[in-house]
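Task card 7
Instruction: Convert sequence to structure tokens.
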Amino acid sequence: MKLKTIALFLFAMSSLVAVGQAVRQEKKMTKNNLHKNKLEFDSLVPGFTLAFSYGYQYPGGDLLWRFGPNSNAGASLTYKNNNNVFFMAQWGFIFGKNLRGQNPLDSISTSDGHVIDKEGKAADVRIFERGFTLSISAGKIFNTFLSPNKNSGLLLTGGFGYLQHKFKIYDNGSRTPQLTKEYLKGYDRLTSGVAITEFIGYWFMSKNQYVNFYGGFEFTQGFTKSRRSWDYNLMRADTESRIDLLSGLRIGWIIPLYKKNAATKYYY
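Output:
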């Protein structure tokens, strides 16, 4: 746990260093342009961007008793208007191997935790966390002292979407009759529901469009329930409502989808 905490701290510090270096580089470029007798006019530039991101998330609420920390690889399409109002559609793939609580295969496991295959041997069964998030959000970029231009700054967003998670049960060699496709539905605890999302961080768009990124803290609250009609461990349907929480850091690389010459105007 200590190693994960240290890694997360280093991840956050490296993100802050990257912001500082990018801001210094941007200011240096502006100074050089002025030295060449070019007056650069910063304008608010509307347009679409595509971003790819990675997040490291910690569970909370009911999810805390099922999984540990997870990774989340995401892709998003954003639009920013000429008032720095921000709209985003985002998809994230949840994956991990940190499991907590009751083994979903307890009902077919031996006293030492093994599942027996069709040859009477201990099966090679592996269990992972899998899921996804879908969200639509809106917010605004606020120019601050860290903003080298009007298209960068503090980003605040909020929105709603969908959260889904389950146990991914892999039977290596498919040698276990108890874990065929239809039976797996009684063990994987597929859970989903509507969700609310929030993000606070920093959005950076360079004038040369070569260095563009964002990073910050992301929060998700899912109002979920089981989507399976039967749970073999409970020997009944799981009808309980859940509140599944995720929170963590996300950092992403931004690809502008508008022309470079739209972002800057020059006067001689």
